[in-house]
Write a structure and sequence with these properties.
Two copies of one chain form a homodimer.
Chain A (H helix, E strand, L loop, with lengths): L2 H5 L18 H5 L4 H26 L3 E8 L5 H9 L7 E5 L5 H4 L5 H5 L7 E5 L8 H4 L5 H20 L2 E9 L2 H13 L9 H7 L2 H15 L6 E5 L3 H18 L9 H5 L4
Parallel strand pairs in A: 1-3, 1-4, 2-3, 4-5
Amino acid sequence: MSIAEVFHLPQGFKLKDSDANRKLIGAAAAGQPDAKAVDKLQTLRIGEKISDLQEIFVAAHAPKLLIILQGMDTSGKDGTVKAVFGQVNPLGARTVAFKAPSNAEKDHDYLWRVHQEVPAKGEMVIFNRSHYEEVLIARVHEWITAAECEQRYAHIRDFERMLSETGTIILKFFLHISKDEQKSRLQERLADPAKHWKFDPQDLAEREHWDAYQDAYERALKATDTPYAPWYVIPSDSKTQRNLVIASIVLERLESLQLSFPPGNPEFSKLKVE
Amino acid sequence: MSIAEVFHLPQGFKLKDSDANRKLIGAAAAGQPDAKAVDKLQTLRIGEKISDLQEIFVAAHAPKLLIILQGMDTSGKDGTVKAVFGQVNPLGARTVAFKAPSNAEKDHDYLWRVHQEVPAKGEMVIFNRSHYEEVLIARVHEWITAAECEQRYAHIRDFERMLSETGTIILKFFLHISKDEQKSRLQERLADPAKHWKFDPQDLAEREHWDAYQDAYERALKATDTPYAPWYVIPSDSKTQRNLVIASIVLERLESLQLSFPPGNPEFSKLKVE
């Protein structure tokens, strides 16, 4: 069984039955005493391999890779970008953090700003939040009805299918944390003035909608898990496990592409630089 | 029967059975001796009404209007823009002429550059050529297979449905000219040095693919005519008839929206400017 299969959204998925603190791979799963250090080192090594493969992307001018990170506040989207993709050469790789839409963005359909940011050939793009907010926060706050939400699921499936059929590999990660874990992470941010920049009082207001968010996530994941754009549910109460799992799935997918540098030009070898 | 219904792509549409020189509305259809002058004046008047209604668009900040013009070389896309939309206030209206894609555009899916240009709320956008080139020239020159072309029809239907469901009114016009009419228009361009800037030797090469283009158009129109983004087949051998028909259909659609200026603010009436 591949690592992707282990974490792929299961049939009949129920978010409440999914343990956010599971340790299914690495030294942590094996119960090694020094598991944390071993798994961190392993993630670092995988990150290097991802970086090497991404260089081939750029050289081969193919394919397009889109990675989507979604999760509740404090679930570790920023941390994942740093730990898993921190070693990737920014040449040909970008992270896009979608904030609340601007007025110009609101005047267009909600996929407009997202489509502009999708990867080009040979590019790796990481979405920190994404068009999925339009079926999460938008639904939780009832800015849209259930019927409109269903319509959006269909738009999103269509959009991702088009991207896939035009050469984009799409991997979607739901960073799953427990309500208790969020509590302690928010408390930690409040306790440390150096972390206050990451805190928004709005986060506490959103936390009150915890159950509605869990429900919106469960529905959205089920409605938009497709063969061409699968969802992976990542147990994220442990940052170490989260990073190791995501890094492993990305590497597994990149290795499956069997990428190689474009063939050299024999004529070039004969050239002499004066 | 509305004018739109007269020109809407019929069931079992066959392009070769469609007379590009039909005169179905206006003084020309009635056989008036001064038909040309009368119909031109009528188009001008309709253009004024379109301009008035578009002002309400801007004021009301709704809806979004997308007009797509497609047709063979010399079919009169530029002329239509001038004759029908020439009086519209550029504030809130734009024409986008899609040329051969740039390298950056080719590195993305073919809807990427198109999506960027769709109308915002309260905006009227006219596409002079469009994403339809991706199932026309691309298919005629066999840059894509028949199966890929079918896939693109589906992408386009999905894309236009999403635009429609997020508030865009879409009207698509196929400017239908006969092969003889194209011959005389191309010859005319060659005879007049002042028109040489509009001539591209490539036009003659494309003309050799006339039958393949007719076939590609017929298939594309049939595959992408939908309730939310209908195709209108415009007899365009006569420029006067073409302009009158398109102007009439656009006006009819805008009038059906029953737009009105946003309500005034009674407080404003009491303000005194010193």
